[in-house]
Amino acid sequence: MINQNCFKNLKHDGRNTLLKQKTYATFDGQKSLKSLPELCLDLLSEQKQEWLDLREGCKSLKSIRERDLSCRGFSVRLQCNPMRIKSSTADVGKKNVKERQCILCVDHLPDGQQGILYRNEYLILCNPMPVLSSHFTVSHLDHRRQAIDEHIDTLLQLMADFGSGWTVLYNGPKCGASAPDHLHFQAVPSGQIPIEKEIRREKRLTLMTQVDRVLLYHLRDLGREVITLEGDDPMAVGGTFKRFLNALKKVLLVNEEPMMNIAGFYKERKWRLMIFPRRKHRPEAFFRKGNARVVVSPGVIDMGGLLITPVKKDFERLDASAVEGIYREVSLEGKTVARAIDAMEVYQTGIME
Ligand SMILES: [Zn+2]
Predict the structure, then answer these.
(1) Cα–Cα distance between 206 and 228 in angstroms, integer?
(2) Cα(7) to centroid of ligand 1, in Å?
(3) How far is the CA of 191 from the centre of ligand 1 (A)?
(4) Could you list which residues have their CB under 5 Å from ion ligand 1?
(5) Do residues 168 and 185 touch, judged by C-beta distance below 8 A?
(6) Rounded to whole angstroms, how far apart are CA atoms 318 and 118?
(7) 165 C-alpha to center of ligand 1: Å?
(8) Structure confidence by residue, pLDDT tens digits, 99-145
């Protein structure tokens, strides 16, 4: 199934050989017998047989507990998932990231792991510590930093290739990415993150502005800031996204990527990006000592309303007001987001670079 042409741009013979070993199938966007989701699901069932860690991870997902909480205006689902302790407490500080072995580099992948070579640039891998069934990581072949401005086109392309029924996710390097130094996205089946239901209620949506036929909505009463961009031309959606990103930088007076998580949905030739602007990665309670510590480390899935609690005690004691407090703390303030949207109108430079 491996197309030899796919490797022509890869520099090192050694890595080519390794990549061949790690490639279960290729997807290059050409018409093929199987769609991308079909290839990924084939990979998953094969990997469950060949790779023990994944098999165990998927098995443990079947016995986890979940419970719903009604917060003011919205609901969340808590998931008690002890497997996620490593990821939730990962030291993502610069020093540690530099010193540790990168978990997404091809030459560090575990023995049994294989992936789908995606458009000759990424490897789609099964996540051995899944939060949802069929949880995939889309990892760049090169070790390069997590950054959305240069790679928003890939996110939009992935959304179209996975198609409706799937959600493509992005975590900013400082707010949820467990490998902030290695570019990656995630893909999961749609319909499992609570906010997907919440946004179906029309009254939540306020149209704020329209740029190049892309609609920008603010979502009300969700206890955290959520913006959506919606359009039928991926170039225009990407351009408007960059305009929003640049406006946020301007308002926050930063040069680096403003903290954010993104969930992408594709349906009937429409691209919809749901953006969660952030001001903090972890809430203050995460850093408390002893019994007062609450292990929550919100990334995009948590911001979407599926809050992962690896510690049983936290799963049992978190209530609606505690969750509302966590969202308030880690989400960017409404007035800052509103200022960024206003700034989009006048801020024209640096949009299409
Ligand atoms: Zn890496």
Answers:
(1) 10
(2) 19
(3) 30
(4) 102, 104-105, 143, 182
(5) yes
(6) 40
(7) 29
(8) 678 999 999 999 999 999 999 999 999 999 999 989 999 999 999 99
